[in-house]
Design goal:
- The complex is a heterodimer of chains A (about 350) and B (about 70).
- Chain A is α/β, with parallel strands linked by helices and about 350 residues long.
- Helix content of chain A is about 35%, strand content about 20%.
- Chain A has 13 helices and 14 strands.
- In chain A, strand 13 and strand 14 form a beta hairpin.
- With about 70 residues, chain B is mostly beta strands.
- The longest helix of chain B has 7 residues.
- In chain B, strands 2-1-5-3-4 form a five-stranded mixed sheet, with no helix packed on it.
- Chain B has a single domain, classed as Ubiquitin-like (UB roll).
- The chains are: A alpha/beta (about 350), B mainly beta (about 70).
- At the A-B interface, helix 4, strand 5, strand 6, strand 7 and strand 8 of A face strand 3, strand 4 and strand 5 of B.
């Protein structure tokens, strides 16, 4: 079969010509975009939509951090992934980096299969000019907020549920931080999740688009056009509202007092329920590098085991335990933290 | 006093999207949340006429109050 002619990938000027013709970006803005590094923490729905836009825009380097693997139920809204990724249960960070390579080979995608924790978040963010929130939980968002305020690094919050979503750029020292907006930490088991309330793909696209636009304005130094508030949307009832008037709290523990409760905890919770899934993540709470092949051999006597270069999966007692090389496990078939901890201790060991 | 109240995201379940309500004169934002049985643990923020207000802020008649839960999915 004849090969199709290859497009002129080296022609950078042509590739970004429409974006460059947009006056607010221009050639100078494109140069800054191409020289920039963006960290995307969490690569599910919001994260993958943001990575897609960042890659197409020609961001120089994208750090993609995610702890999970692709499943069929992700495909309705997680735009970087396809059926082959789900069938092979590829880690999302790797699948996303692979997709970036197909979309724009000039972009350097750096996948990291990991949970963002107090132990690694500052290292992950080092060298980034802006951070995009692709997480599905507030514990990690507060952690990002702590790290970004400490490092003086802008980040863009985003959240979705049902047909609703919101987004806001946070510029440490200039605008309210996440703890100015939501001073109290979030208790586990209280908020609706994608599993209980559902989520539609279109709100993901909308919120990620706002996150991308705010991030690019930051990258090119156009702070004048950043949204001065929290942009909120409901696609089903057509409510679009810019929430304004949030003050920087004079006693904010994070951005005023520089007390970084989430960052200095030095360990995040050992167990986390996963948004949209009857599943719990169990984390060892300390740096770990498992020999997955050895673990797979050890678990083979306990139940059905499958092994890939990235993970070991064990089906046992009506549960499915997926263990990653950093020692984390996702326990499917339960939302009970104690059950998950027990299964982890029993099969993975603590 | 007369208020227009808009609820967002999961707060709509079992309640309403938008409603015109009567609420006692001189009452606060917090009292409106109590009247609507809005659980504080999920509360994101409250806006009056699009601007953020604290729970102890007195409500003014003929205003629009928008109540948002924390939105945490992603």
């Amino acid at each position: 079969m004849d090969k199709l002619p290859q497009p002129p990938l080296a022609n950078v000027a042509e590739r970004y010509s429409r974006q460059v013709r947009f006056p607010a970006i221009g050639a100078a803005g494109q140069a800054r975009i191409s020289a920039s590094r963006v960290a995307v923490i969490g690569c599910g729905a919001l994260g993958s939509a943001a990575v897609d836009l960042l890659a197409r825009a020609g961001v120089g380097e994208i750090v993609i951090v995610d702890r999970d693997f692709v499943e069929i139920s992700n495909l309705q809204r997680q735009v970087l992934f396809d059926e082959a990724d789900a069938a092979a249960q590829i880690p999302k960070a790797v699948a996303a980096a692979n997709a970036v390579g197909r979309i724009n080979s000039q972009v350097k995608a750096q996948p990291l299969i990991a949970d963002a924790t107090s132990s690694n978040i500052e290292e992950i963010l080092t060298g980034a000019q802006v951070v995009i929130d692709g997480t599905d939980n507030f514990e990690t968002r507060y952690l990002i907020n702590d790290a970004c305020v400490k490092l003086g690094l802008p980040w863009v919050y985003g959240g979705v549920i049902g047909a609703s979503g919101m987004a806001m750029a946070i510029l440490p020292g200039e605008t309210p931080c996440l703890r100015c907006i939501y001073p109290e930490g979030q208790a586990a088991g209280v908020l609706a999740t994608c599993e209980t309330a559902g989520v539609i793909g279109a709100i993901v696209s909308l919120v990620a688009a706002v996150q991308w636009a705010e991030a690019v304005k930051i990258l090119i130094g156009d702070h004048q056009h950043l949204g001065r508030g929290l942009a909120t949307f409901d696609l089903w009832t057509n409510d679009y509202l810019l929430a304004t008037g949030f003050p920087r709290l004079a006693d904010c523990p994070c951005c005023a007092q520089h007390r970084f409760d989430y960052l200095e905890a030095r360990h995040t919770s050992q167990t986390t329920t996963l948004c949209g899934r009857n599943a719990v993540q169990v984390s060892p709470g300390h740096p770990l590098r498992l020999d997955l092949a050895e673990l797979g051999r050890r678990l083979a006597s306990a139940g059905a085991v499958s092994i890939s270069p990235y993970l070991v999966r064990l089906g046992v007692d009506g549960h499915e335990i997926t263990v990653f090389a950093d020692g984390r496990a996702i326990v499917k078939g339960t939302a009970d933290l104690g059950t998950a901890r027990s299964l982890y201790a029993r099969y993975v060991g603590v | 006093m007369h208020l227009t109240v808009k609820l967002f995201a999961t707060y709509r379940e079992g309640r309403f999207e938008i409603a015109d309500l009567e609420h006692p004169d001189g009452s606060t934002v917090g009292s409106l949340l109590d009247a609507l049985a809005i659980p504080r643990a999920e509360l994101g923020f409250v806006l009056v006429q699009g601007r953020h207000v604290e729970l102890d802020t007195p409500l003014a008649a003929n205003t629009t109050v928008s109540i948002f839960p924390k939105v945490g999915g992603g």
